[in-house]
């Protein structure tokens, strides 16, 4: 509802302004007096609209005042008409005054006067504007600023002939030269601060783009670049410093930079908010706005800057509504960086809305017209930089969580779910690393008398026995050794490092003894024996599969003896029994 009312006010503004205009038979005199804010000419500026654009200064001076009107607001529309502004002033000799108009995009400005008592002009006519080199502008000012040298006390009349293709609302003011210089100096300081912020964000995030190679950073860099170019164009600094002798390039920049700013901002929002994932329906709708935003600079290139500006303002408003909606939906889906993005969008939207409202004549806020856009742009890019930082932190957190989850899944894939030892895949992965160098020993262990436990006491009791056996094996080896269950009642111990055979024999006996100790299961003392086959790397095999085959033959040689014991792969037929009492 609020947007509907705002749109109606924008449509009705020209009619309201026309109704508010009045004609007088006597001039409305502007009395000049020194002060920090100067003298506003609002309501005291006589306006004549020359639809034919043929009237010259002599014809305008000869017109009766009744052909002029005093509008409450001076507003330029999208049309080629010429506006004549007349100022009747009362002044005292002394300070030099400056007639100011906060306008950048007036294409043709001509000044005549001051005139006194119907005489000749006291100053030579001036002609400058957006269509002319910057060097022709009085006082070297980006805005209209015309110095007035009044030789004596009295009444004077000034005339401005203006033409612009851009819609704007202006309020003229007469300011003492010294005060005007101070105001310009303060304005330049603030401009420099805003430009510094934009340039710093541009350089910093360009480096981040080179580091992360993220599309969101790429569109952000373009957004900041076009924001900087748009603000400097609106402030007249592009015409002043970049293209002082090429007004056509200044106008082109003025027409192209804002729609490109809107376009890159839309693309940045789409990628930053990951709209394809979080808001797929709004993502599809955004394609239409992107297409319209791409058409706006094309219109500027084809010589329709007025259409380009109007379309840019409309797309910016609709795009803000779309992106704010997308940010809210993304926040509801726990995409937390959207909070920063939302804050940046709202900050710029408020300032742009105020600037548009001022340009349309809905409000009278000269400070907003002068500084609103650049302050809003600087605040937005800073908040967007924070948003990107928040996004990077979120991505890092997600990557850590993903790595942790991957590690858990990988560990689970290599772990026997019953005993917690490595399974065959886990054994293979560790053997691939161990069997690259050095000498190692593989012990293949098969339990004896395990099947009767399963048959007599059930699989649950058998599982508890397997768990305890795996635990006892892990107790008997070092951290660098590997304990694995291949399946059923078969286990593997892979010893890392070189051992003499007598030491390996002692290790095998120790494992057999430990396995053979009674295992308490549900109040019962259950016992199992074990048969062990030993294979040495690289003597008995060059790979895990070869070692397992060699150890398996040795282990079955032991089993054939019907005693708990062990045998080396190269000592088949000479199985060694464990000490008595361990079988």
From TrEMBL:
Query: Do you know which PANTHER family this protein is assigned to?
Result: DIGUANYLATE CYCLASE DGCT-RELATED (PTHR46663), GGDEF DOMAIN-CONTAINING PROTEIN (PTHR46663:SF2)
The keyword Membrane is annotated on this UniProt entry: yes
InterPro entries, alphabetically?
Answer: 7TMR_DISM_rcpt_extracell_dom1, 7TMR_DISM_rcpt_extracell_dom2, DGC-Regulatory_Protein, GGDEF_dom, Nucleotide_cyclase, Rev_trsase/Diguanyl_cyclase
Q: Which SMART domains match?
A: GGDEF (SM00267)
- List keywords of the entry alphabetically: Membrane, Signal, Transmembrane, Transmembrane helix
Q: Which NCBIfam families match?
A: GGDEF
Transmembrane ranges, per UniProt, are: 189-212, 219-243, 249-270, 282-302, 314-331, 338-358, 370-390
> Does Heme show up as a keyword for this record?
no
Where would one find the signal peptide in this protein? 1-20
Domain GGDEF, by residue range, is 438-571
Q: One Pfam family, please name it.
A: 7TMR-DISM_7TM
Please give the name of this protein.
Diguanylate cyclase (GGDEF) domain-containing protein
């Amino acid at each position: 509802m609020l947007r509907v009312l705002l749109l109606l006010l924008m449509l009705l503004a020209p009619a309201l302004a026309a109704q508010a205009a009045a004609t007088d038979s006597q001039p409305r005199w502007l009395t000049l007096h020194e002060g920090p804010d100067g003298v506003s000419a609002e309501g005291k500026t006589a306006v004549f609209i020359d639809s034919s654009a043929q009237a010259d200064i002599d014809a305008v001076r000869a017109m009766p005042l009744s052909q002029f009107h005093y509008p409450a607001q001076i507003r330029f529309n999208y049309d080629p008409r010429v506006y004549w502004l007349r100022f009747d002033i009362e002044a005292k000799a002394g300070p030099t005054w400056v007639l100011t108009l906060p306008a950048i995009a007036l294409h043709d400005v001509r000044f005549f006067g001051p005139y006194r008592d119907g005489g000749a002009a006291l100053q030579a006519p001036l002609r400058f504007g957006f269509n002319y080199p910057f060097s022709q502008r009085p006082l070297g000012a980006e805005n209209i600023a015309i110095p007035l040298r009044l030789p004596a006390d009295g009444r004077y009349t000034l005339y401005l002939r203006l033409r612009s293709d851009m819609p704007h609302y202006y309020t003229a003011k007469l300011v003492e030269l010294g005060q005007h210089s101070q105001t310009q100096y303060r304005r330049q300081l603030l401009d420099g601060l805003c430009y510094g912020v934009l340039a710093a964000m541009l350089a910093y995030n360009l480096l981040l783009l080179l580091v992360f190679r993220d599309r969101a950073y790429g569109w952000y860099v373009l957004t900041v670049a076009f924001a900087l170019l748009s603000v400097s164009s609106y402030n007249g600094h592009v015409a002043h410093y970049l293209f002082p002798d090429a007004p056509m390039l200044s106008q082109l920049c003025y027409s192209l930079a804002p729609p490109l700013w809107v376009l890159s901002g839309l693309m940045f929002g789409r990628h930053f908010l990951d709209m394809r994932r979080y808001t797929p329906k709004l993502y599809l709708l955004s394609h239409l706005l992107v297409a319209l935003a791409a058409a706006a600079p094309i219109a500027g290139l084809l010589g329709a800057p007025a259409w380009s500006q109007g379309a840019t303002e409309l797309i910016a408003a609709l795009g803000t509504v779309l992106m704010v909606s997308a940010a809210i939906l993304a926040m509801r889906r726990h995409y937390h960086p959207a909070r920063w993005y939302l804050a940046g969008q709202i900050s710029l939207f408020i300032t742009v809305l105020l600037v548009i409202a001022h340009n349309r004549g809905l409000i009278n806020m000269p400070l907003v017209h002068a500084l609103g856009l650049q302050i809003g742009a600087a605040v937005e890019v800073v908040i967007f930089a924070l948003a990107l930082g928040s996004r990077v932190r979120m991505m890092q957190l997600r990557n850590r969580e993903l790595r942790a989850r991957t590690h858990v899944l990988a560990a689970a894939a290599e772990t026997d779910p019953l005993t917690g030892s490595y399974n065959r895949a886990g054994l293979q992965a560790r053997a691939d690393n161990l069997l690259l160098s050095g000498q190692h020993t593989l012990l293949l262990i098969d339990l004896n008398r395990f099947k009767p436990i399963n048959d007599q006491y059930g699989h649950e009791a058998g599982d508890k026995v397997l768990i305890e056996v795996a635990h006892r094996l892990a107790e008997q080896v070092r951290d660098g050794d590997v304990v694995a269950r291949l399946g059923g009642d078969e286990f593997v111990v892979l010893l890392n490092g070189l051992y003499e055979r007598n030491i390996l024999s002692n290790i095998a006996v120790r494992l057999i003894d430990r396995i053979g100790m009674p295992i308490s299961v549900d109040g019962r003392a259950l016992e199992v024996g074990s048969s062990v086959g030993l294979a040495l790397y690289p003597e008995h095999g060059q790979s895990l599969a070869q070692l397992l085959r060699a150890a398996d033959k040795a282990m079955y040689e032991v089993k054939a003896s019907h005693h708990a014991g062990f045998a080396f792969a190269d000592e088949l037929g000479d199985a060694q029994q464990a000490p008595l009492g361990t079988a």
